[in-house]
Amino acid sequence: MAALGSPARTLRGLLRELRYLSAATGRPYRDTAAYRYLLKAFRAHRVTSEKLCRAQHELHFQAATYLCLLRSVREHVALHREFHGKGERSVEESAGLVGLHLPRQPGGKGWEP
Q1: Whose CA, among 18, 88, 91, 101, lies 20 to 30 Å from 54?
Q2: What's the average model confidence in pLDDT over 61-80?
Q3: Running DSSP on this structure, what letter comes out for residue 98?
Q4: Distance (Å, whole) CA 19 – CA 35
């Protein structure tokens, strides 16, 4: 994982992923225990007057790691839905999945099968 960025950006990313999850269930994301826990944890670990607040950095690292997990799982599910086998596919359909087009056979004498 690269640089962590700001804690506010990580929190916004986590809340965005909660919204994606709640859209699937139909329940408002602000009513979930995860939403309440995230806000409580981030409020409890705000920057203090200390030079190095280890607890805040640890929370931020864990939150960024969890955000990466949530995004990866969501993207994996989307890719799985798109490319998972739906039975036997034609050659044209398989080529279209990877962005290729099959050449057309020219008409005329000698080209009939």
Answers
A1: 18
A2: 92
A3: T
A4: 10
Distance between CA atoms of 86 and 94, rounded to whole angstroms?
11
Confidence check: pLDDT of 6 > 80: yes
- The answer to whether 56 and 3 have CB atoms below 8 angstroms apart is no
Can you tell me the distance from the alpha carbon of 89 to that of 73, in angstroms, rounded to the nearest whole number?
A: 26
**Helix crossing, 33-44 with 7-25: angle to 10°?**
170
Q: For the chain, give the number of residues.
A: 113
Check: CB of residue 22 under 8 Å from CB of residue 29. Answer: yes
Residue 1 confidence (pLDDT): 52
Q: Which range marks the domain in which residue 56 is found?
A: 7-85
2 inside domain: no
Alpha-carbon gap, residue 34 to 42, rounded angstroms = 12
Contact present, 56 and 10 (Cβ < 8 Å)? no
* pLDDT greater at residue 49 or residue 104: 104
- Number of domains making up the chain: 1
